[in-house]
Structures are given as structure tokens and as C-alpha cells.
Automatic annotation (TrEMBL):
Keyword Protease: yes
One GO BP: proteolysis
PANTHER family per the UniProt record, alphabetical: MURAMOYLTETRAPEPTIDE CARBOXYPEPTIDASE, MUREIN TETRAPEPTIDE CARBOXYPEPTIDASE
SUPFAM superfamilies cross-referenced by the UniProt entry: Class I glutamine amidotransferase-like, LD-carboxypeptidase A C-terminal domain-like
Sequence ranges assigned to domain LD-carboxypeptidase C-terminal in this UniProt record: 170-286
Entry annotation: catalytic residues: S108, E201, H271
Name of the protein in its database record: Peptidase S66
InterPro entries associated with the record: Carboxypeptidase_A_C_sf, Class_I_gatase-like, LdcA_N, Peptidase_S66_N, Peptidase_S66C, S66_fam
Keywords: Carboxypeptidase, Hydrolase, Protease, Serine protease
Pfam families recorded: Peptidase_S66 (PF02016), Peptidase_S66C (PF17676)
Domain LD-carboxypeptidase N-terminal: 12-127
Family to which this protein belongs: Belongs to the peptidase S66 family.
Coiled coil: none
Amino acid sequence: MNTPALQKGDTVGIACLARKVSLEDIQDGVRLLEAWGLKVILGQSVGAEDGYLGGPDALRTADFQQMLDNPEVKAIFSARGGYGTTRIIDQLNFSSLKTNPKWVIGFSDVTAMLCHLHALGLESVHGTMPLLMGKPDTQEADESLRRILFQEPLSYTIPPTPHNVLGTSTGQLVGGNLILLDTITGTASDIDYAGKILFLEDVGEHYYNLDRVLVHQRRLGRLQKLAGLVVGQFSDMKDTAVPFGKDVPQIILEHCGPYGYPICFDFPVGHVDRNLALVVGREATLQVTQEGGTLTYTSSLS
């Protein structure tokens, strides 16, 4: 069941799933959502705090659950990422989404939530969040999210890179933050990669840790079964005192290149201003040619 498109006048909610955030921090995002014609309600977790977190686990759980169950709320935004989503995810009941589908939006730490929903057969959106929205440099990311939520036609074309592996594949689009994908392995939020197009991004990681995570996933037999791979932005990568000796494309090609599926590098998704929104769980076609890469949904967003 596809998620209904938002309409002007619809109500959307903002809740903290992870790190704390103040009302002031998300004002630009709230104003943008209102400019789209939406009514915005804020959860009690916005402005709450429990050390690093946006309030105690029980508060964040109840806050998000109330928005899941409220039929008037047509979409739920995680206010920001950080850390904390996996602390509450097993206490949530998602049964109402199966009869009343709605968008859940976020990225980074919220990858765990998006994967959990995919494991339940539900779509969600990997996209920018209110903390980051409404800024001069994020207009393209904001607009891509708006087009998905209102289900307007959308496809992406990416310039070529010398690292790309050419080819065409079709499959459900899944993925998100690489470290979170590894963290949820073996839990109720884990996802099946077989026959799917995986997209990856991360920030502030060491090169050796990127390698370690991919080794883990390869040893599990997951990288071998992909239909395709979209490599997003790996921002602010770090090295060790003794250099690892390989960069991001080299590491990824070592572990994924031998399997022959198309790989599109330098896709604008991740911890960057141009963080283009993606529908997790929607079937898409990835085509990588000498002219670049295209990612197109095979079924209409409308």
C-alpha cells in the first residue's frame, strides 16, 4: 500500500527520536512546512532533554506513538538525528500504520527507524529534517522532499565519475547511514538486501572503520546479493596516524566491485546541504552509463 500524498491543509508532526533540539533550532523548518500549506504540531519531546537525548526514552516513545496513532497527522518528521532512535524503537507499536499509512521522515540515526518500517513492509522517506530545513543552501534538498511528500514526478540524474560501475538494475531502494545499517544487523530492524538497490552515506568515520563494516556485511553474504549500489556522501572522513592507504571509492570497489551490479558514486545524499530525498522501500531503476547515473522510481509517486 502506497502512502497517500500530502495535501495543503494537512497536519504534520515533529518529534525528537534522538538528540535533543530546541524550538528555536527548528523554526526555519517549521516556517518552511507552513509555507508548503501544512499545519505543524510539535511533540512534547521538542524542547525536552535528558542529557544528550530529547527527553527520557519513555517521553520520546509516547510522543512518537501518539503521532503514529493520530489519524489527523499525515506525516511525522524526526526533528534531527544524533543518537537515540534505537533506544525506543522496540517499545513502539506500528500496527496503526498498516491501516493508516503516513510518511515518516529523517536520516542519519533515523536510518534505524526507516529500516524497521521497511522490515514491516512500509515505505518511509530518507530526507532532510526540520533542524536543517529552510536554509539558503538547502533549497534543493527541501524541494526534493516536498516533491516526494506531495507525490510529484521525481527522478535524479548524476554526473559520471571514473569509479562508476556501468549497468542497469531494478529493485526496492533501501539503505541510509552505513554505521546504523551495521548496528541494526540481527535485530528486528534489520533488512534483507537481496535483489535491492542499496544506498549508503556516513559522516566523520575513519577509513578503516568503513572497511571493517563492509567486511562484516560481505562476510554475512549481503553485498553479494545486491541489485545495485548508490554511494552517497562520506563527509569529513578521518584517517589514523598510520594511514589506512585507501579512499572511499577504493574501499567500496574492493568489497562490492567484483559482483558486477551497477554502482553509482557521488550521489547527493547524506550529511551535506544537497541531501536529496529518497523513498525507502519504493521500487526504482538505477542506470549507470558513461554519461552518468539516473535513479527513477518504476511506479508513480502519485
